Amino acid sequence: MKIMEKPLELHCIALGQMQTNCYIVINRSTKEAVVFDPGDQGEKIMETLKKEGVRLTAVCLTHAHFDHIMGLPYLMEVNDKLPVYLHEDEQDVLLDPQLNLSTMVGLTISLKANRIVKDGEEIELLGEKVTCIHVPGHTKGGVCYYFSAYGWLISGDTLFQRSIGRTDFPTGDLNALLLAIRSKLFVLPPETRVFSGHTPPTTIGEEIRSNPFLL
């Protein structure tokens, strides 16, 4: 999938055993890119960037479960001092292999982010303002990235097409997730396009109307 709205383009590639949606947002004018949730196959991500003729300038994590971070060690290794964005409440999840579930698949992933964000904080990526929306529930530090000028919401495993993220893993909380989606995401413009970690794109309006978990 590729969505083009000058000067930014949004690309999606499915990575790893969980086929996690990794989003690559590219600014063609500056030839720079930001990767959201490098689920696996860091080499494939870098090959994609090379093919597109762009340079990786940052990684943004919606949360720290293994299937969203397995490609990160490689990206950090080949990109010195790579900015890695993560919500402040998710730091110990990224650090702890039990919390990030990497031990569940026979791995030991323990990493640190170097750009810690807070709820409502506005960061600049690729020359555009992006709002960090803390939506706890799937994990305690889950965060969605909202490109208001483009109407894009990169939601990770918070909100899916007609579904929501699981809450039975460590730090999950169903009531917190439902409350946060209703109070923080469903107030966005209904035409906002939602790009999730595991389902096709949807919109805020469509989920308000038809998501069975939130009716």
From TrEMBL:
It comes from the Bacteria. One of its GO terms (molecular function) is hydrolase activity. Pfam families: Lactamase_B. The lineage of its organism: Bacteria, Bacillati, Bacillota, Clostridia, Lachnospirales. Keywords: Hydrolase, Metal-binding, Zinc. The keyword Glycoprotein does not apply. This is MBL fold metallo-hydrolase. Its cofactor is Zn(2+). Residues 19-198 form the Metallo-beta-lactamase domain. PANTHER family: HYDROXYACYLGLUTATHIONE HYDROLASE GLOC.
